[in-house]
Design brief:
The chain is α+β, with helices and mostly antiparallel strands and about 220 residues long. About 20% of the residues lie in helices and about 40% in strands. The chain is built from four helices and 15 strands.
């Protein structure tokens, strides 16, 4: 295993993580906190060991993404609460891929939850807690300089590839049915096109948790 760079000063603290610079200017250390928030940080609390669980879950999903060919900023998990990541510039756009009508989409359109959509629906949200992450479109991102047209095309392609290759629309993998439970957490992703060309993109997306049900064979692996 490559040597771990020295952990230096904290340069950012968010709702769920603290970020520390390191002796390698291209790498940062993310520390996962036990803080819990809801409604864009309007309600706050603490859940014991939440940081440890989120660190392990993040490692799992970043590994699944890498196996599917989606490059991420994840380097490796360092311990129960810390992971080593590539340093990136942030695009303040959250991407949500919807396969089933639920949540805010059902509320906005006045439709009943549970309807299976004929194709994935991709939505953008501007990442801003004070504004409650408002729904935006591609023109907003372009006009206000949050992303370029090329970056949005890359983000769309990666979001849909993640949706198709890591999770499908019906709670199935490898022909086996499992229980599908929506999880309201996001993942921060970055990627590098070549060793000499880094795309400074960042987005978050919602994912689902999958669990075996009575019809799932014991050898099933997601």
């Amino acid at each position: 295993m490559e040597g771990t760079p020295e952990k230096l000063d904290m340069f950012y603290e968010g709702k769920a993580k603290k970020l520390y610079s390191t002796s390698d200017s291209d790498l940062v250390i993310a520390y996962f906190k036990d803080d819990a928030t809801a409604f864009n940080a309007k309600k706050r609390g603490t859940i014991e060991d939440k940081g440890r669980v989120n660190n392990r879950m993040s490692e799992l999903f970043f590994t699944l993404l890498e196996r599917a060919g989606v490059r991420t900023h994840f380097v490796r998990r360092l311990n129960d609460r810390e992971m080593l990541c590539k340093r990136l510039q942030i695009i303040p756009v959250e991407v949500v891929v919807r396969n089933i009508l639920a949540g805010s989409l059902a509320k906005r359109l006045g439709r009943e939850e549970g309807e299976v959509l004929p194709r994935p629906v991709l939505e953008y949200y501007f990442k801003s807690d004070p504004l409650d992450d408002p729904l935006i479109n591609a023109d907003h991102a372009l006009v206000f300089g949050w992303a370029t047209a090329g970056e949005l095309r890359q983000i769309d392609a990666l979001a849909l590839k993640t949706n198709d290759d890591v999770f499908d629309a019906h709670g199935k993998r490898s022909g086996e049915r499992v229980d599908r439970i929506p999880v309201g957490a996001g993942l921060n992703l970055g990627y590098q096109l070549t060793p000499f060309q880094k795309l400074t993109a960042h987005y978050e997306f919602k994912y689902d948790a999958y669990f075996r049900d009575a019809t799932t064979v014991s050898s099933f692996v997601i």
